[in-house]
Amino acid sequence: xxxxxxxxxxxxxxxxxxxxxxxxxxxxxxxxxxxxxxxxxxxxxxxxxxxxxxxxxxxxxxxxxxxxxxxxxxxxxxxxxxxxxxxxxxxxxxxxxxxxxxxxxxxxxxxxxxxxxxxxxxxxxxxxxxxxxxxxxxxxxxxxxxxxxxxxxxxxxxxxxxxxxxxxxxxxxxxxxxxxxxxxxxxxxxxxxxxxxxxxxxxxxxxxxxxxxxxxxxxxxxxxxxxxxxxxxxxxxxxxxxxxxxxxxxxxxxxxxxxxxxxxxxxxxxxxxxxxxxxxxxxxxxxxxxxxxxxxxxxxxxxxxxxxxxxxxxxxxxxxxxxxxxxxxxxxxxxxxxxxxxxxxxxxxxxxxxxxxxxxxxxxxxxxxxxxxxxxxxxxxxxxxxxxxxxxxxxxxxxxxxxxxxxxxxxxxxxxxxxxxxxxxxxxxxxxxxxxxxxxxxxxxxxxxxxxxxxxxxxxxxxxxxxxxxxxxxxxxxxxxxxxxxxxxxxxxxxxxxxxxxxxxxxxxxxxxxxxxxxxxxxxxxxxxxxxxxxxxxxxxxxxxxxxxxxxxxxxxxxxxxxxxxxxxxxxxxxxxxxxxxxxxxxxxxxxxxxxxxxxxxxxxxxxxxxxxxxxxxxxxxxxxxxxxxxxxxxxxxxxxxxxxxxx
Length: 648
Prior knowledge:
By secondary structure, the chain is α+β, with helices and mostly antiparallel strands. The strands form nine sheets. Strands 30-31-33-32-34-35-36-37 form an eight-stranded mixed sheet, sandwiched between helices. Strands 1-29-28-27-26 form a five-stranded antiparallel sheet, with helices on one face.
């Protein structure tokens, strides 16, 4: 750990948020690359993120992290007093998905086993002892377990959510190591909210496309009162964020008549929203992440994203702490993620566009900043390139935001990298794909095309039944803008993406063959009709049909926008990579797309990875995928000839 002595006089700097993450990694193949590939860099950037998350114990002594070790994500514990670290508490290959403190020296974790079953463990940090306190009754299925409440004062102070769309909820007695299903007398509950007395206080109920937020004002009152209503399609969708310490003030993310989402306070006693939002912006939705004071239980700050990450402070003392250290880490953005108020210890996440995330602990009593760890320390020795927000105008005049990464001249070509989702967005921060491609001489543009979240309801809804159409036009316009603005070679453009981004990338070969020379799709779908017919999650499928089109009513549209129906021999080459056990998009999409291209005499490569799913976990798969992609770009953008063979 590195110790930095701080001055007490520091100017405030803007804060930052967690970095964006792009789906995918993958394969097994063997090939020869030209000398211009930086294999050492590829090896180092392929390392899975370490210190994936961090949280502080109540007394501020311990920092718990999720750490990638020996093929799995493990629990790591930093003892800041003893200046020690260990990540071998859990034995074997596991996947820790959540860490939650249970008092000062005990911790609850969710560990998903390889067979899909989720287990929840309680660890005593001082003795390294652990006991299983809860486990999923569902075996051999892709389930999702999450701890939604943890209060060691109460015998039933642990509440667990098990499942996804319509889950089950359990209260867990840690002392007796027993669990009991929570039945609140309401069907189709998707979310349950627990107040400061460890009682179920609010719930979200889903009925077809509608959902309702209900509250139970008194523990002895059996009636649940409907409070807020919304639509899962996004027409009117207030979301409950937090129940304040007074147990009657709700923090709600809502539109309240505006196109843009803000954060509002709702008084359950007066049954009304605040006269004005707590936080709103004129150009961006406030996609809020609340920081809670661990002693008072009040909201101390709201983290949110615009072009860069920002924080709005409601607690002047917290803001003062941030101001003290802002200039020490001035080349990036800082975000206070956790605090032990009584011990005056504060945990910060630090990130920039040129450095992976780092975690720092600040002790106000000692006026000392400690580097806890980095997500990828191996990359510290490399020069990275600025990834900055830019804006361009689409063909209809609408302004679109994107992130642009430029390598030093001469630039080999342009890569357009559409994000997955598509109801997601790219954020500012360190991006593995952008840095990998820029280091090898490619400019990278990552547009937040229509349908991306964060830019208002109208912007998101403008993508309804516009897959393969307006959403694609935004990508085409991004390419044209970047080529002109940065004077890039117009005949060296490739589209690369994962999941929805794979669909959009491959589709560009047919919708914009005059602009795009090649495409690479990882874990993508290429037949919209098949995608919607395959989906077994009815709630999700209904939402997808609303946005993409219904296979019955909109068959002609869905057929038209599917790349598998547009293949032609004279289009550019395609690289397809897919995990055989993809739980989200059937790998047969890639198999059938490859066959369709081959049938007309087109050029395509197919790699089906037997041991991976939608998101790839193996570092070897990530490394080989990067090398495969770079080889593909060399052949089709750099015009270099290399020898290679590929095996599934």
